[in-house]
């Protein structure tokens, strides 16, 4: 019995010691994990309703948030009985008291009332200072714009510790913090990284029931400076127009790129298949407008530029009844055409003949001409940003491919296939839009921007992205000839049917890239600029699953031109 008594006394002392350790000694740094017991206790009794995850805002070129937020009514059911003037609130937001009453049925946790408020209604609700009724700007993700350009975010507990060790150590981020995994969210992740939510907080008892005697508090760990805001070059209205034109044309695999020629800024970009925010790494996740694809006959623009630069005359004649290898009849009977008409009618034989001659004289002629047209390397803005030496605005952009192997420059059929944008040639729609912008601008190559400024949270400028121009360019006479030839494509050539009768005069080049005999579709392109006499826009539209007798790329291109004319942008 004495032994049992001693054991009980020892056990009691152990329990008392444990309580002293928890309550008095290690309250702020318990165990090897250094858990703050006081903070954890408070957190266990604190419930929250997240209004904003705190990540930096992405804006269009007019300062409009690309991720839309709306004035919304947040209701706390457990505070409803505290002198809650239901009829007053219903009157302010213009709904019946019965509808507002029914919305509480079955609700325990805070919820968003299903009605968008006006700014004035939001102001009137908050002036009432009603416990449990809060009108706030709440982000929404319905029908988001430019999803491939903006990219996506998701938590990554393993990566976040290694990527941001200092922020992790100081506790400003945790395993729930979301990281950018694609697009601008990836490129600018260090500047957009959230340092805390904006929430409505309330306290609960240990069963999780709200403590009615305590008020709901508005809490935000953000300040007037951070996280930063990203001001893009995109235009919300134009982006909507592009997405509508692509979708209504029936393009489900392809897209469009629109560049402002003067600034070389992307003002609209659409990629399909659609991006699924619930599956950010699945089908549709890739922005196809920055990835390399077979350009088909659009590539003849580069061959034509090299021919003009080397002194080939427009009066030179070509047998356009021949196939591309010039060893038999082609699929089309075009007769004998001069250089300009050969381009307008997209005569394969003419451009394979030219490419063979040009490469024999200078094996690097394609690469040199590509450099002068601004497409020899990745075309997105790249330079020093803060302490990042080679920062890229388009981190997912593919570099162009002309020849995969130098020996192909000595193989006639390989040269012929390359001349018409097949074999191993890969260029992104963004690169081809940049090429058209370079020609429309008068020959000055520039990097393409999609972000103009980084702004502090209060709207003041943190830093700006300067235009980057390149000195090496085609001569004025070559640019003049190129522009006239591109216009002829629309006036009398392959673009005539769909693009000749538009409110702006268009210049450009069509392209069809074959993918093999067993593939039931091909790539259909139209790349151009407009208005012809005073170039303002460069536009590329591509349909990667075009079947016979479909002209969706042309139709979408024409629709976009008409829409821009109506928007008067």
Overall 3D geometry?
elongated
Q: Strands across the major sheet, in which order? A: 12-11-21-20-19
Which runs of at least 5 residues are low in confidence (pLDDT < 50)? 33-45
Q: What is the residue-mean pLDDT, rounded to a whole number?
A: 86
Q: Describe the sheet with the most strands.
A: 5 strands, antiparallel
For this structure, the quaternary state is single chain
State the distance separating the first and last CA atoms.
96 Å
Percent helix range: 25-40%
Radius of gyration: 31 Å
Beta-strand percentage range: 15-25%
Let me know the number of strands. Answer: 21
Q: What is the count of helical runs? A: 20
Structural class: alpha+beta
Characterize the structure shown.
With 569 residues, the protein is an alpha+beta fold. The protein is built from 20 helices and 21 strands. Helix 11 runs antiparallel to helix 20 and helix 12 packs across helix 15. The longest helix is centred in the first third of the chain and has 24 residues, at 2-25. The radius of gyration is 31 Å and the shape is elongated. Mean pLDDT is 86; it is low at 33-45.
